[in-house]
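testing teh design pipeline on a random one, pls ignore if ur not involved
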């Protein structure tokens, strides 16, 4: 089953997505979006992840941390 988690972090919107992968595992990815003032949509800055995890919860947590680390390291 797919899962999505979205949260704000230091002026960015992080959208974590977990999808089924072969072998009963889960693939986690995150989009990092810059919140655009006055515009109707955010601007995609980066995409991180693609990593395979054993379960959905582990994937959501790990991908969220990876996205936060990306923001901290670049901005």
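output:
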């Amino acid at each position: 089953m797919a899962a999505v988690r979205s949260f704000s972090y230091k002026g960015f919107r992080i959208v974590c997505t977990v999808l089924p992968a072969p072998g009963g595992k889960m693939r986690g990815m995150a989009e990092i979006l810059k919140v655009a003032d006055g515009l109707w949509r955010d601007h995609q800055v980066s995409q991180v992840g693609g990593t395979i995890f054993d379960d959905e919860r582990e994937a959501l947590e790990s991908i969220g941390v990876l996205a936060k680390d990306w923001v901290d390291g670049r901005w």
